[in-house]
Amino acid sequence: MDEERGLEHMIPKSRSSSSSSSSSSSAAGSPRSGLIEPLLVNNSRLNTTSQIAIVGAKVCPIESLDYEIIENDLFKQDWSSRGKAELAQYMILRWAIALLIGLGTGLVAFFNNIGVENIAGFKLLFTNDLMLNHKYYKAFAVYASCNMVLAIAAASLCAYIAPAAAGSGIPEVKSYLNGVDAPSILAPTTLFVKIFGSIFGVAAGFVVGKEGPMVHTGACIANLLGQGGSEKYGLTWKGFRYFKNDRDRRDFITCGAAAGVAGAFRAPVGGVLFALEEAASWSPSLSLLSCTSMHVTCN
């Protein structure tokens, strides 16, 4: 009897006596149906949010890239209307950008090596002097403190300036070459954090290498040069308007990634193999373009 009274109190009072009697009889026969019925009547539990608001609340920032050129009549007419001087300018700029990508990646690789050697050398030299003076505890404290400061600096750069620079960078570059355009993976801030974060991380004694960061760094340099600078910071050159498309951008980023491998190991053949295996196996001309960037990087 107590259970039946409890079920009757759960039914809304606005209902008619006939419906309440039928509900009580059904509740007596089947208690589960009486428990479900008030939940169906209560409209406050229904989602009244507009579907348009739900869809437009958070737009996914990840987009796909279209590398294919649509060779229709309009495309053929556009290329046939271009003069020989304009086509020659396109080809010359394409090879010039490949050379600049190799040069820029090589300079960054040299800067990384100099930075790591100097920071780690100063740390070890200072610690060695303390150990020669039999100040072992102080030497340990100085060594641990230096590593901690370098680790905090590298982590802070990734956490507060460019979270996209965290990790090795190879998965991000490979995903871009496969057609996934994630936000900020090739931004100038990501390039800045990648350079200094890798220097601080290696100098801190972490078990990290230079291949992944250099691949990501080379891709960022290629994206910056191939697009004629950064539109966000107002540093662009109109002469690179020919390369404002996904296909040319993909080709330059392939050159940058391969040049990063060559700069990390000082091995142009290794960069060529990386390009053939991961980046440019479908295009012989792109492999030759990547090979040019890698030789400039190593030289």
TrEMBL record:
Transmembrane portions of the chain: 92-115, 136-165, 185-208
GO CC terms of this entry: plant-type vacuole membrane
GO molecular function: chloride transmembrane transporter activity
Stretches for region Disordered: 1-32
Membrane topology: Multi-pass membrane protein
Keywords: CBS domain, Membrane, Repeat, Transmembrane, Transmembrane helix
Biased composition (Basic and acidic residues): 1-11
Compositionally biased tracts (Low complexity): 14-32
UniProt xrefs under Pfam families: Voltage_CLC
Main location: membrane
InterPro entries tied to this protein: Cl-channel/antiporter, Cl-channel_core, ClC
Alphabetized SUPFAM superfamilies for the sequence: Clc chloride channel
Origin superkingdom: Eukaryota
Localization (cell): Membrane
Keyword Transmembrane helix: yes
Protein name from the UniProt record: Chloride channel protein CLC-c-like
Lineage: Eukaryota, Viridiplantae, Streptophyta, Embryophyta, Tracheophyta
